[in-house]
Amino acid sequence: MKRRDIGSGSSHLDLNRRSFLRAASFAGAAVAIGGFSEAQFAFAQARHHSLLPENMVFLNANENPLGPCAAARAAMLEGITQSGRYHDEYAEELTNLFASQNGLKPEYVQPYAGSSQPLAYCVLAFCGPGKGVVMGAPGYEPAAFTAKTCDAPAASVALTKEGAHDVRAMVAASSSPGMYYIANPNNPTGTVTSRSDIEWLLANKPSGSIVVLDEAYIHFSDATPCIDLVAADKDVVVLRTFSKLYGMAGARLGLVVARPDLLKRINDRGGFTFCPVPAMKAGIASLKDAQVIALRKKINADVRQETFAWLASQGYAFTASQANCFMIDAKRPTQSVIDGMALQGVLVGRPWPMWPTHVRITVGTPEEMAQFRTAFQKVMETPVTASYRRHVLSRTTLFS
Ligand code: PLP
Question: For 266-324, what is each residue's pLDDT tens digit?
């Protein structure tokens, strides 16, 4: 299996063996911190694909096929030579730069190696037995997984038909919430929740509960960012990551933005990880790049719209995504589509059982989306019969 990115020289078999080992060790680490992330879901899924074609198209983990921008790559190279030392001055520079760009005091910003770890820490900090997580459904699952590890209840509230978080139903869903989790835009649907709904939630939530706004995909969308609510000392935590628009998923860099008392409660759950020097330098370079957000937002939107136009012409319904992922109603069991697509060389996202006929697709390059269209058409032309199931079974272990 070969990923289409720079420096991927591993052999098929090697990578599969390593994928398996990584998936196993990720799972162990996930249990230890009470968290799970898109990377771990993807590796857990990919380890089954031992008989799949060489040039897989990866539309399964909401990564950015563009990778880091040019300035970030140059900064990373410099960072490699400096990696013999901790260089915590870059954490300070990153913090100060982000704070000044967003009207925050630096003590409201904390770098982490990605946003998955602080998301888990938020649950551990704000929830526990009798103090639950309330989130949207379908939604990004790790907060619910972490809740299990600390015996906190988790309530999943269906999104509205437009795909927004139903904040009124979320407030009604729990009498003792510790934390409301809103990914805006949402994963897996890519749909957005309005600023007025978020303000309503803040005004009407039980006191003591915290609203965690996961803005992993915010740059792709027209949704209003909510960092100013943090600056105004509301009960809000905003999570940001460099994994999505900035194309640095494998480099590991994220930011937690919160009032210092909330940040302390989050950091106290296990301490933030020191971030890799190349990642911090690339993060700084990305934030200084005045063009990258608008440019990549447009690239993603153009490819997404082209795919939507094709899906609409074929009669498929899909979510009104403003992010780099969306869901299609395939009107057949999700797993059969995932497996069929894998056999056509295209990996797509995992199933969300509450939507048993939807599949999640990550927006790739125009060429990758052309491969997606060809593969999807072939899969959808194939009836889901017992013999098709046997055929897929004979070539993969996915149904096991
Ligand atoms: N939050 C959401 C909503 C995501 O979809 C993801 C990854 O897909 C993350 C957080 C985690 O990103 P990372 O740990 O790479 O920053």
Answer: 999 988 778 999 999 999 999 999 999 999 999 999 999 999 999 999 999 999 999 99
Sequence-separated (6 or more) residues with CB below 8 Å from residue 21: none
Q: Which residue has the higher pLDDT, 138 or 15?
A: 138
**What whole-number distance in Å separates Cα of residue 306 and Cα of residue 301?**
8
Which residue minimizes the CA distance to atom 5 of ligand 1?
Answer: 187
> What is the pTM for the complete model shown?
0.89
Rounded distance between C-alpha atoms, residue 382 and residue 343, angstroms:
12
Q: How remote is the CA of residue 173 from the centroid of ligand 1, in Å?
A: 25
Decide: residue 389, CB within 10 A, 0-12 exposed, 13-18 middle, 19+ buried.
middle
Boundaries of domain holding 281: 70-288
User: What's the CA gap between 379 and 248, in Å, rounded?
Assistant: 32
- Peptide bond preceding 188 in cis form (omega within 30 of 0): yes
Closest CA to ligand 1's atom 11: 116
Residue 141 and residue 211 in one domain: yes
What atom of ligand 1 comes closest to residue 217's alpha carbon?
A: 3
For residue 327, give the 3-state DSSP assignment: strand
Do 270 and 302 lie in one domain? The reply is no
pLDDT in tens, 201-236: 999 999 999 999 999 999 999 999 999 999 999 999
